Request: fold
Amino acid sequence: MKKKNPPVICFACFIILYTAIIGLLSCSKKPAEVETPEPQTTFKFTVNSTIYQWNGNSATDPSYGSRINKYTYNGSTWYTLSASPPNGGLYTLLSLKMQTASLSIGTYTLTSTTTTSWNLADHYCGVNGNDIYTSSEVGDFATINISSIHSGYADGSFTARLTNINGSLARVDVTNGEFHNVKIVE
Reply:
């Protein structure tokens, strides 16, 4: 009986084991990339004891929802916090300007120092399609507090005092404003 050469057997076992490991490793699949869904966006405030809540992210559907847009015009840069309900129409929305070149956590207040036409005002609030308030008179203001910025979204609160454009010059307070997961569009 002829003896088998132990190094040849060991080498053969190594080749078989190596081939099996390589085969198993090549069969492993890379996990599929999962698209992260948009976080739930909420936006609400009170005018004349009525609560308005316009949820949704207008970064995905610009016809309604809320967002913070960055604008640059004639060397000036600012951000606007805005929201509108689905099918709200042209005059039902809220838009508040933050005079800043870069958005960060903090408080932004912009107060009117001169009388202006309602369509040139910095802040705008239209509710019920009939009641339109703007920062068209001296002393009208909006204050926005950005409490958190995360992954391109912002959370915070806001208040405003605006003037009715119907000629009465009646002022209205926008209170209890809060927003969560509002998309920042740079």
